[in-house]
Design a protein that fits this description.
This protein is mainly α and about 80 residues long. The chain has one domain.
């Protein structure tokens, strides 16, 4: 999905408001907050594993980039690097 600059800024602002709300309501929504946090850590772990993978030894890092893009797509995070999934 491609967003306009205004839409991306709106999404970012909305995201910050949701985060502030979650922090205020931490007692009630702690499990949701932890789930989102865990998902973010899983994505970062996958990216780190790609960057540390010595079997992806192409000098221009195309294989690494493709693997990172695949990790993003697996977690339904869009990127304009490639438009295939």
């Amino acid at each position: 999905m491609s967003l306009s600059l205004a839409e991306e800024l709106y999404v970012q602002s909305l995201g910050w408001e949701v985060l502030r709300y979650l922090k205020r309501e931490e007692g009630k929504l702690l499990s949701l907050y932890r789930e989102v946090d865990s998902e973010a850590l899983r994505v970062l772990e996958e990216i780190r594993n790609v960057l540390d993978d010595d079997t992806l030894d192409d000098p221009d890092c195309f294989k690494r980039i493709e693997a990172i893009v695949k990790a993003f797509h697996t977690h339904e995070i869009s990127t304009s690097r490639h438009d295939w999934g």
